[in-house]
Fold:
Amino acid sequence: MNTPSDTDSATERLIGSLASDLAPVHRLRSPGVRAFTWLAGVAAAAIVLAMIADVSALKHRLSAAPDMWLAATGSTLTAILAAIAAFQLSLPDARRTWALLPLPAVLLWIVASGVGCLRTWFVPGTHVADLSEARDCLIFIVGLAVPLSALLIIMLRRAYPLQPELTALVAGLASAAAAATLLNFFHPFDAAAIDLVIHVFAIAIVIGANWGLSGRLLAH
Amino acid sequence: MASSPWVDRAGSFLHHPAFKDVIVAASWRRRTERRMNAIHTQDARADLRRSTWMEAAQAGDGVAYQALLRDCIPVIRSVARSRGVALDYVDDVVQDVLLTIHRARQTYDPGRSFTAWLCVIADRRAIDLLRRIRRQDLREVYAPLALEGYVDQVADPARGLIQADTTKTFTRAIASLPARQREAVRHLVLEERSLADAATLTRRTTGSLKVNLHRALKALRGKMKSWE
Structure:
C-alpha cells in the first residue's frame, strides 16, 4: 500500500506533467449547435437523395395516406431529439435522463408505423412489399446509417462522455431514425407487417452495432 | 386596568425556562444562517476563482492550471469520501479525476459553475472505482492460509545468492578491462544502445566500437572461465 507522502508526490508529479504539456483548446460549442451541425449533414444527404428519388410519387403517397406523415414526423423528430440527447450525453457532467428525450418521438413513430401496417390489412389492393423489397430496405437503412453513425461518433468523440455506452446507444438511435426517414424517398409502398419487422430489425442492428462498437470508441 | 388572563399567561411564559431555550435557538439559527451565507459566499468566490483559472487553462495558461488542479483536490476527496470510497483509494479517485479534467477541459463552459462540473465528474469516477473494486472482489478470494501454505515449485532459496555472486564476479571482470573495451561493453551491452548512438556518445567510429566489444567479450569469457 502506498504511504500518504508517496501518493501526494505522485499526485504532484501528475499535476506537473499535465500542466507542462498543456496546449490551448477550442471550447466546444453547445450540444444543441453541434447536434444541428450533424443534422445539417443529414439534410444535405436528404437533398442529394431527393434529386435522384421520385419526389412526386412520395408526395402522392403522403397525400393518399396521411398517417405516413405521422410516421415520417415521428422518425424525423426521433433523429433530431436523439441527436440532441447524444450530444448532451457526450459531456462529462451530463445527466442520464437526457437519454429519455427522444422517447415521445419514438412512441409516435412506432404507433404511426403500426397504424400504417394495420391499414394494409383492412384496405384491399394495397401494394405490400415482398421479401426482396424488404431486403432492399434493410440494406438501405444499414448502409446509410453507417456513414451517419461514423460522422456522429467522430463529432461525439471531441467531447468526453463518461457514459460511453449510453451515448453510443442514443447516437445509434439518431442514425437509425435519420436513415429510416431518408428511406421514405425510396419506399413506394406501405409498411406491411414483414416490412415493418425488417425496419425494426435494421434499426436494431444499427443501434446494437453502435452500442457495441462505438461504445468502445467513445470510452476513454 | 385588570390584566387579561392571556397577558398573564404570556408574562409567565416569558419567565419560563423553555422560552429562554427558544430565544437561544432563534439566535443560534440566525448565527447558523449567517455562517451558511458566509460559506455560500466563500463557495461562490471559490467557484468563480476556479472558473477563471479553468478559462485561463483552456487558453493554455499552465500556472493557472496547476493552481486549479491543486485547488480541486480537497473537493474531489470530499466527494469520494461522501460516496463511500475507502481512504486507501481516495487518491486513486483524485488522480483519475485530474486526468479526466485534463482530457475533458474543452467541454467546460465558463458560463456554468466549475465546482458543480467537477463534483459530477468526481462522483462518476468514484462510482467507477467502486464498481472496479467490487468486480475485483468477486474475482479474487481472500485466503491468507492457502497463500501461506502454497508451495512454489520453482522457488530456489540459493538462486538469489548465486545471482548476487555472479553479478559481483561479472562486475569485477568488466572493471579489469581496458578503458576503451569497458566503454564499448557499457554502451552496447549494459545500456543496450545502438552502434550509431554509442558512436555519437563516445565520439568514436562504429568500427572501433565493434572491434573493442569483440575483444572485450573474448577477454571476459577467458576471465570468467579462469575464475570458475
In short: Residues 1-7, 17-25 of chain B have pLDDT under 50 and may be disordered. The CA atoms of residues 39 and 178 of chain B lie 73 Å apart.
